[in-house]
């Protein structure tokens, strides 16, 4: 389940922002329009993450789509948020992974709380080391189908108010529509806009295949070895995968 003890199920019931009207739709719409002005399709995910940071009391945001073995990282508001998204993919754990598995939001108000530490002991430690104290992960999709996540990171602990959570959900909804409505980038010769962003994800699959051949193991074991090597050396799974594909790194049995 997404919301558990230690999570914020929807803000403080005594918060004065509770029950706000539809004015937020207009505010979010204007911010999105301004943020996307002049952006090509491939730049949209990162721009929307920046919009989320401008609208909410958070310090970073990242967006990922569901992948067959690892999430496909599409964009982030900055390098730290991008690193945290890659960290979750490397570990195979964290709020993003939980949302992809359940389709329910995860609103972890304090990563030092026992609940968060027990759920994601390694991710929580790494995120705290990066200065992040709270993570709010929201599903992208509709009709009960989760196609990705919007992850919001904050340097201070605390819950989102009802109003702030409402805005976060509006942004996630806009992001879902935007990502699903951007099939092509004419500047790239009518190639699917996602193809360039997903190239790194393909490199991970290629590296897993090479590790399978090197070690004589199955795909799950090869991916686990890739992730373990990355974590042991303080790197991301993508960084190690690129070394494997370029023959700079070989796995020995």
TrEMBL record:
Pfam families: ANTAR, GAF_2. It comes from the Bacteria. Gene3D superfamilies: 3.30.450.40, Winged helix-like DNA-binding domain superfamily/Winged helix DNA-binding domain (1.10.10.10). Residues 1-24 are annotated as: Disordered. Residues 184-245 form the ANTAR domain. Keywords: Transcription, Transcription regulation. This is GAF and ANTAR domain-containing protein. InterPro entries: ANTAR, GAF, GAF-like_dom_sf, GAF_ANTAR, WH-like_DNA-bd_sf. The keyword Transcription regulation applies.
